[in-house]
Amino acid sequence: MKLRPMVISDVVMVHHIDQHSFPDPWKCAQHEEEFERSWSYGLVAINDDNHVIGYLRYWLVADEMQILNVAVDPAYRNKGVAAALLRLGIDDARCQGATETTLEMRRSNVAARRCYESLGFRMVGSRPNYYGDEDAILLTLTRPTISPISGLYVILDDSFLKLEVMPTTAALLADQGCRLFQLRCKKHPDRPVLDTLDHTRKALESYGVTLIVNDRPDLAKMAQLDGVHLGQTDVPPQVARHTLGKTAVVGYSTHNPDQFHAGRAEPIDYLGLGPIFGTTTKTDADPVVGVETLAMLRRQTALPVVAIGGITERNLPLIRNAGADAFAVISALWKAPFPADYARRLLRQWEAA
After folding, report:
1. What is the pTM of this model?
2. Percentage of residues in the chain with pLDDT exceeding 90?
3. In whole angstroms, what is the distance from residue 158 CA to residue 342 CA?
4. Contact 235/210 with Cβ under 8 angstroms?
5. Could you read off the pLDDT of 61-99 as tens digits, one per residue?
6. What contacts 132, CB < 8 A, 6 or more positions away?
């Protein structure tokens, strides 16, 4: 499945979906009229045969996104199509300044309401007999104002650190002001990794930090962590979200514009992007993304973006100026003579940029 902006040639297929979705479907002419409104936006989901399988139509008026229609072909329902369209549409609208998303829907549409609530919508009112024979309920979603994804993103990597020193090392870095931690433990079996996660969580309890684990939502749940970070070949984000719940932090690595844009429609809380520069941490690293691409992609999402790959004191201002919300440093941090001092210098430089 791919998502893209709706074009007028999609109207016939969109109308076909409407006929199988609504008791009073829009006519083709109504869909066509929307293309003449500068405040009206549409997205479609297409399958491998380039057929439209779902669509979203919304208005953006001042700082409010008003959802008009969301519909999915019956053959593709309950497969996450509507949720993906909504996530991408909401992100697009927020990039243009939307702070609130609203909609009206039939009270009896339980499946749709469940979908909206999974995205964070809440009921704020109702309109009696709005549809003639049925009440409408009003739902709203407000843009979060504070994100834990900010500043130095510390990655406790077992390629550089022994498991037994990770809890005390994390606490030392928290003392310097670090508030975002990920444990990346790819070289050890689950039992010692789970013990390390538990000990690190306890070591950081008094600091009010965000602690997640790489790759494994199951371990994140068992260790009662804040979330998980996923790569392109790990379990899909929707599986992690189902495992951890809607309040967990789910991050997602991307390495090029196509992956980045696809990630915006996933049930995630932030996007990782890299390598921004050449890196020695991974022997199989993807091609360098570059600062220019980082800046371009950062302008195209309202989700927090974490820059990673080859970041040092020397090039950190470039990352900050490109708009990244946070930055991950691995090799340069753990190869420093005094990692805690190095982390403090990075944080000061970030805050001063």
Report:
1. 0.92
2. 92
3. 19
4. no
5. 999 999 999 999 999 999 999 999 999 999 999 999 999
6. none
What token pair was written down for 274? 């890299």
Burial 332-348 (b: 16+ CB within 10 A, else e): bbbebeebbebbbebbe
H helix runs in the chain, sequence order: 11-19, 28-34, 81-95, 110-118, 166-175, 190-204, 217-222, 237-244, 257-263, 291-298, 316-321, 331-334, 339-352
Interaxial angle between packed helices 110-118 and 81-95, expressed in degrees from 0 to 180 and rounded to the nearest 10: 50
Can you tell me the mean pLDDT for 44-69?
Answer: 98
Long-range CB contacts (< 8 A, 24+ apart) of 255-259?
255/286, 255/287, 255/289, 256/286, 256/287, 256/289, 257/293, 257/296, 257/297, 259/232
User: Which domains are present in the chain?
Assistant: 2-142 (3.40.630.30), 151-352 (3.20.20.70)
Model pLDDT, residue 282: 65
